[in-house]
Specification:
The protein has 479 residues and is an alpha+beta fold. The chain is built from 14 helices and 18 strands.
Length: 479
């Protein structure tokens, strides 16, 4: 864990005459924000204080492993052996960042700029506002920093304990951030990603400020702040699918069954952008021997192409140089009709592949939840995506092409079904292997996942065999 130095108030006080617990009580009484560092023989202790409240007490051993302890445990260790105590003052922003980091959950560890772009990753994480993100960065040239994405700000904490603030969405306005991104690109860097749910952060902030409890929520149409975190995540995912579908269709049109004009519904993104479809009119069915509207105007009879009534299968076409422009366009559209039909068939195949792969991912997710009692599949899934992103870029978790949530897959990239299946199969295999390694019941998780996937294969036997997903399941179970 990254611990900035801050402004020194006391340094190298001997634990033989300083009572750590009494020192902490005195600092809290004065509304102190900062960190108390306790140097022991085989470990170092850190007590983070935010606005007069102990936010966390941590112990880092010689192997750099950090564990959560209590102030009383650190005070007892300080009394039992000779050590040193130092006190460093933080600004409120830095103290808040350090307190949140101590209470965060890991998503990725030891990511490298060889496989992930730090700037692109920050841009993606900044848009996920249902979580607070904390990223510890260490460049190969020795620079370190903690990046804290909170509400509308991007806070950069330097080793000296200073804080520089940038705009969360644009990631501009911070010289420290610009220098960090430049250095990570030039020299290379590793970084760890941690997160906290924003809803939890808001509750803690209310408690810290001792504000009165919020008014009861009404039953009017809810804003984003009135939606429960899980519901908000699902709602944002639905918005994502609708908006990305609109992008994939381009300037699509909507036409009613009776041929009347209808306007394509506009799609509003979470960030406020709007996509508006075109308005078109459906052509009415032309009767036999009528003028084909795609070749010209009814009123412009000079260049009209007529269909021979005696030989309807052999239309008389004008030479190319005499053909009206509208006719050329119509003929071109006709020639591409078969290609469009093939594309439609490919899209239908991809839709089915996404649905079936979503079922496989859901089955693995539910097996992991049944054993670990935690919803940590997303962490393992993203780790798997990151491992295969060099071979299957469309699965890059920091890109905008692929998203998974609760058995649903939204994909707006360009990939052949076989590549999509192979890439996602490999990512799921890595995700399951990671979950098995991290659980205390690996054999049970492996058995449950294998049985559930077997039952799923029997349920969708014909569909799985059609796309080779029965073999995909076998590869996943090699984890």
């Amino acid at each position: 864990m990254f611990f900035p130095r801050g402004k020194a108030l006391h340094e190298n006080l001997a634990t033989s005459y300083v009572l750590v617990d009494a020192l902490i009580d005195d600092l809290c009484e004065g509304g102190f924000s900062g960190i108390v560092e306790i140097q022991l023989q085989d470990a170092d202790g850190y007590i983070i204080i935010e606005r007069g409240k102990v936010a966390s007490a941590l112990l880092k051993n010689d192997q750099k492993n950090v564990s959560v302890v209590t102030v009383q445990e650190l005070a007892a260790s300080a009394r039992a052996e000779r050590g040193r105590v130092s006190v460093y003052n933080y600004s409120t922003d830095v103290a808040s960042a350090m307190a949140r980091r101590a209470d965060s959950e890991p998503l990725y560890t030891q990511l490298s700029t060889d496989f992930a772009d730090l700037g692109k990753m920050l841009t993606k994480l900044a848009r996920e506002r249902d979580r607070e993100w904390l990223i510890e960065v260490a460049t190969l040239s020795g620079a370190q920093a903690l990046i804290y994405l909170r509400e509308d700000d991007c806070l950069v904490v330097t080793p000296e304990g200073s804080a520089d603030i940038a705009d969360r969405v644009e990631l501009t306005g911070s010289r420290a951030l610009d220098e960090l991104l430049t250095e990570s690109t030039r020299a290379g860097a590793t970084f760890d990603v941690y997160f906290r749910r924003a809803e939890e952060a808001r509750i803690e902030e209310i408690e810290d400020r001792q504000s009165p409890p919020p008014a009861p929520l009404d039953e009017s149409p809810a804003t984003a702040d009135r939606i429960a975190p899980a519901d908000r995540e699902a709602a944002e995912f639905e918005k994502y699918k609708v908006s990305q579908a609109a992008i994939g269709q381009g300037q699509s049109t909507a036409t009613s069954h009776d041929g009347a004009n209808t306007e394509a519904a506009s799609v509003e993104f979470a960030d406020g952008d709007v996509i508006q479809g075109d308005t078109t009119q459906d052509d009415t069915i032309q009767s036999a021997n009528r003028i084909d509207p795609m070749y010209g105007d009814e009123e412009d009879t000079d260049d009209i192409i007529y269909i021979d009534e005696m030989k309807p299968s052999e239309p008389r076409l004008l030479p190319d140089e005499q053909m009206p422009e509208a006719a050329k366009q119509g003929l071109t559209a006709h020639l591409f009709a078969s290609a469009s039909a093939a594309e439609t068939a490919g899209e239908a195949e991809m839709i089915e592949v996404k649905r079936l792969m979503g079922e496989i991912a859901r089955t693995i997710e539910e097996a992991i939840r049944a054993v670990s009692q935690q919803s940590n599949f997303a962490m393992h899934m993203r780790a798997g995506q990151l491992r295969v992103a060099d071979r299957y870029p469309f699965l890059d978790p920091f890109g905008n092409e692929f998203e998974y949530l609760a058995g649903e897959i939204a994909f707006v990239g360009k990939a052949k079904p076989d590549d999509f299946i192979n890439g996602l199969t490999e990512a799921l295999r890595i995700a399951l292997a990671s979950a098995i390694q991290s659980t205390s019941q690996p054999a049970r998780l492996r058995a449950i996942a294998a049985e559930d996937l077997r039952l799923l294969g029997e349920r969708y036997r014909s569909e799985f065999e059609e796309f080779g997903l029965d073999q995909a399941i076998e590869r996943i179970l090699e984890a």
